[in-house]
Amino acid sequence: MAEVVLFHHALGLTPGVAEFAQGWRDQGHVVHTPDLYEGRTFSDLDEAVDFVDAQGIDHWIGAASGAAAAHPAATAFAGFSLGAACAQYVAQSTAGARAALLFHGALSLATIELAWPEGLGLQVHTAEADPWVEMDEAQSLIESVDGGELYLYPGSRHLFCDASWVEFDEPSARLLNERSLALLGSL
User: Fold this and answer.
1) In whole angstroms, what is the distance from residue 124 CA to residue 85 CA?
2) Residue 58 is inside which H or E element, if any?
Protein backbone atom coordinates (compact mmCIF):
# COMPACT_ATOMS: atom_id res chain seq x y z
CA MET A 1 0.00 0.00 0.00
CA ALA A 2 1.28 3.47 -0.93
CA GLU A 3 0.41 6.89 0.36
CA VAL A 4 -0.05 9.25 -2.58
CA VAL A 5 -0.63 12.94 -3.12
CA LEU A 6 -2.51 13.35 -6.41
CA PHE A 7 -2.62 16.84 -7.96
CA HIS A 8 -5.45 17.94 -10.25
CA HIS A 9 -5.12 19.48 -13.71
CA ALA A 10 -5.93 23.02 -14.85
CA LEU A 11 -9.68 22.35 -14.82
CA GLY A 12 -9.49 21.88 -11.05
CA LEU A 13 -10.50 19.05 -8.78
CA THR A 14 -13.12 17.64 -11.13
CA PRO A 15 -15.40 14.66 -10.47
CA GLY A 16 -13.17 12.67 -12.84
CA VAL A 17 -10.05 13.35 -10.76
CA ALA A 18 -11.96 12.43 -7.60
CA GLU A 19 -13.18 9.22 -9.25
CA PHE A 20 -9.64 8.35 -10.37
CA ALA A 21 -8.35 8.84 -6.82
CA GLN A 22 -11.17 6.72 -5.41
CA GLY A 23 -10.14 3.90 -7.74
CA TRP A 24 -6.70 3.88 -6.14
CA ARG A 25 -8.24 4.01 -2.68
CA ASP A 26 -10.38 1.01 -3.59
CA GLN A 27 -7.11 -0.82 -4.30
CA GLY A 28 -5.93 -0.10 -0.75
CA HIS A 29 -3.82 3.01 -1.29
CA VAL A 30 -4.12 6.19 0.77
CA VAL A 31 -4.72 9.02 -1.70
CA HIS A 32 -4.84 12.72 -0.90
CA THR A 33 -6.29 15.10 -3.49
CA PRO A 34 -5.48 18.65 -2.45
CA ASP A 35 -7.66 21.27 -4.09
CA LEU A 36 -5.24 23.97 -5.21
CA TYR A 37 -8.18 26.05 -6.50
CA GLU A 38 -10.18 25.97 -3.26
CA GLY A 39 -13.33 24.63 -4.88
CA ARG A 40 -13.14 26.36 -8.25
CA THR A 41 -13.40 24.29 -11.42
CA PHE A 42 -13.51 25.10 -15.12
CA SER A 43 -15.37 23.57 -18.05
CA ASP A 44 -13.22 25.28 -20.70
CA LEU A 45 -9.55 24.30 -20.92
CA ASP A 46 -8.42 27.59 -22.46
CA GLU A 47 -10.04 29.57 -19.62
CA ALA A 48 -8.44 27.24 -17.10
CA VAL A 49 -5.01 27.70 -18.65
CA ASP A 50 -5.47 31.48 -18.61
CA PHE A 51 -6.25 31.22 -14.89
CA VAL A 52 -3.14 29.11 -14.28
CA ASP A 53 -0.94 31.42 -16.34
CA ALA A 54 -2.21 34.53 -14.53
CA GLN A 55 -0.85 33.14 -11.26
CA GLY A 56 2.34 31.69 -12.75
CA ILE A 57 3.89 28.26 -12.31
CA ASP A 58 5.85 29.32 -9.24
CA HIS A 59 2.56 30.00 -7.45
CA TRP A 60 1.23 26.52 -8.26
CA ILE A 61 4.50 24.80 -7.31
CA GLY A 62 4.41 26.65 -3.98
CA ALA A 63 0.78 25.71 -3.39
CA ALA A 64 1.49 22.08 -4.25
CA SER A 65 4.54 21.98 -1.99
CA GLY A 66 2.48 23.35 0.88
CA ALA A 67 -0.30 20.85 0.24
CA ALA A 68 2.15 17.95 0.11
CA ALA A 69 3.79 19.05 3.36
CA ALA A 70 0.45 18.41 5.06
CA HIS A 71 0.94 14.70 4.25
CA PRO A 72 4.46 13.87 5.46
CA ALA A 73 3.93 10.10 5.19
CA ALA A 74 3.30 10.31 1.42
CA THR A 75 6.03 8.75 -0.68
CA ALA A 76 4.33 8.85 -4.09
CA PHE A 77 3.31 11.97 -5.98
CA ALA A 78 1.09 11.99 -9.05
CA GLY A 79 -0.62 14.59 -11.15
CA PHE A 80 -2.48 15.43 -14.31
CA SER A 81 -0.97 18.06 -16.68
CA LEU A 82 -0.51 21.13 -14.43
CA GLY A 83 -0.60 18.63 -11.56
CA ALA A 84 2.15 16.60 -13.25
CA ALA A 85 4.50 19.58 -13.02
CA CYS A 86 3.52 19.99 -9.37
CA ALA A 87 3.96 16.28 -8.63
CA GLN A 88 7.32 16.19 -10.38
CA TYR A 89 8.67 19.16 -8.43
CA VAL A 90 7.35 17.86 -5.10
CA ALA A 91 8.68 14.33 -5.74
CA GLN A 92 12.11 15.64 -6.70
CA SER A 93 12.31 17.91 -3.65
CA THR A 94 10.84 15.61 -0.96
CA ALA A 95 13.23 13.45 1.04
CA GLY A 96 12.03 9.85 0.99
CA ALA A 97 9.87 10.17 -2.12
CA ARG A 98 9.76 6.87 -3.98
CA ALA A 99 7.57 7.47 -7.03
CA ALA A 100 6.51 10.21 -9.44
CA LEU A 101 3.59 9.40 -11.73
CA LEU A 102 3.17 12.12 -14.34
CA PHE A 103 0.03 12.11 -16.48
CA HIS A 104 -0.26 14.34 -19.57
CA GLY A 105 3.00 16.18 -19.04
CA ALA A 106 6.57 16.17 -17.76
CA LEU A 107 9.46 18.59 -17.53
CA SER A 108 13.10 18.02 -18.35
CA LEU A 109 15.62 18.22 -15.53
CA ALA A 110 17.01 21.35 -17.16
CA THR A 111 13.60 23.02 -17.02
CA ILE A 112 12.79 22.07 -13.45
CA GLU A 113 16.38 22.74 -12.31
CA LEU A 114 16.49 19.89 -9.79
CA ALA A 115 18.48 16.67 -9.84
CA TRP A 116 16.58 13.39 -9.94
CA PRO A 117 16.99 11.67 -6.55
CA GLU A 118 18.40 8.17 -6.33
CA GLY A 119 15.65 5.60 -5.86
CA LEU A 120 12.79 7.80 -7.11
CA GLY A 121 10.72 5.80 -9.60
CA LEU A 122 9.24 7.53 -12.62
CA GLN A 123 6.36 6.93 -14.97
CA VAL A 124 5.25 9.41 -17.62
CA HIS A 125 1.93 8.76 -19.39
CA THR A 126 0.67 10.81 -22.34
CA ALA A 127 -1.16 10.53 -25.63
CA GLU A 128 1.38 10.22 -28.44
CA ALA A 129 0.13 13.36 -30.23
CA ASP A 130 -1.12 15.40 -27.26
CA PRO A 131 -0.87 19.03 -28.42
CA TRP A 132 -0.46 20.25 -24.83
CA VAL A 133 2.59 18.07 -24.07
CA GLU A 134 6.10 19.03 -25.09
CA MET A 135 7.38 15.58 -26.04
CA ASP A 136 11.00 16.73 -26.13
CA GLU A 137 10.68 17.66 -22.43
CA ALA A 138 9.17 14.28 -21.55
CA GLN A 139 11.72 12.38 -23.61
CA SER A 140 14.60 14.34 -22.07
CA LEU A 141 13.34 13.48 -18.59
CA ILE A 142 13.02 9.79 -19.41
CA GLU A 143 16.53 9.72 -20.87
CA SER A 144 17.86 11.36 -17.69
CA VAL A 145 16.30 8.93 -15.20
CA ASP A 146 17.53 5.35 -14.84
CA GLY A 147 14.54 3.06 -15.10
CA GLY A 148 12.14 5.87 -16.04
CA GLU A 149 9.17 4.65 -18.04
CA LEU A 150 7.40 6.57 -20.82
CA TYR A 151 4.01 5.24 -21.86
CA LEU A 152 2.43 6.60 -25.03
CA TYR A 153 -1.26 6.12 -25.76
CA PRO A 154 -2.96 6.40 -29.15
CA GLY A 155 -4.35 9.69 -30.35
CA SER A 156 -4.12 13.28 -29.23
CA ARG A 157 -6.55 13.46 -26.31
CA HIS A 158 -5.38 15.55 -23.38
CA LEU A 159 -6.64 14.55 -19.92
CA PHE A 160 -7.88 11.27 -21.39
CA CYS A 161 -8.08 9.59 -17.98
CA ASP A 162 -10.53 12.10 -16.45
CA ALA A 163 -13.93 10.43 -16.85
CA SER A 164 -15.68 13.80 -16.45
CA TRP A 165 -13.82 15.44 -19.35
CA VAL A 166 -14.92 15.35 -23.01
CA GLU A 167 -11.67 13.69 -24.12
CA PHE A 168 -12.01 10.70 -21.79
CA ASP A 169 -10.73 7.51 -23.41
CA GLU A 170 -11.73 4.51 -21.33
CA PRO A 171 -9.32 1.92 -22.83
CA SER A 172 -6.31 4.25 -22.47
CA ALA A 173 -7.41 5.32 -19.00
CA ARG A 174 -7.73 1.70 -17.90
CA LEU A 175 -4.24 0.85 -19.19
CA LEU A 176 -2.73 3.95 -17.57
CA ASN A 177 -4.37 2.96 -14.31
CA GLU A 178 -3.08 -0.63 -14.48
CA ARG A 179 0.49 0.53 -15.14
CA SER A 180 0.31 3.12 -12.36
CA LEU A 181 -1.08 0.65 -9.85
CA ALA A 182 1.78 -1.74 -10.69
CA LEU A 183 4.30 0.93 -9.70
CA LEU A 184 2.38 1.86 -6.54
CA GLY A 185 2.11 -1.81 -5.63
CA SER A 186 5.90 -2.17 -5.82
CA LEU A 187 6.57 0.54 -3.22
Assistant:
1) 11
2) helix 57-69
Domain count across the chain: 1
pTM here? 0.97
Q: What is the CA radius of gyration of the chain?
A: 15
- Rounded CA separation 17/79 (Å): 10
Q: Do residues 181 and 27 make contact, with C-beta atoms less than 8 angstroms apart?
A: yes
Q: What is the CATH number of the domain that holds 94?
A: 3.40.50.1820
As to burial, measured by CB atoms within 10 angstroms (0-12 exposed, 13-18 middle, 19+ buried), residue 1 is exposed
Give the Cα separation of 84 and 60 in Å (integer).
11
| DSSP codes of every residue in 97-124 | --EEEEES----HHHHT-PPPTT-EEEE
143: number of Cβ within 10 Å: 11
C-alpha 24/C-alpha 136 separation (Å) is 30
Domain assignment of residue 84, given as a range: 3-185
Written as tens digits, the pLDDT of the chain (187 aa) is 999 999 999 999 999 999 999 999 999 999 999 999 999 999 999 999 999 999 999 999 999 999 999 999 999 999 999 999 999 999 999 999 999 999 999 999 999 999 999 999 999 999 999 999 999 999 999 999 999 999 999 999 999 999 999 999 999 999 999 999 999 999 9
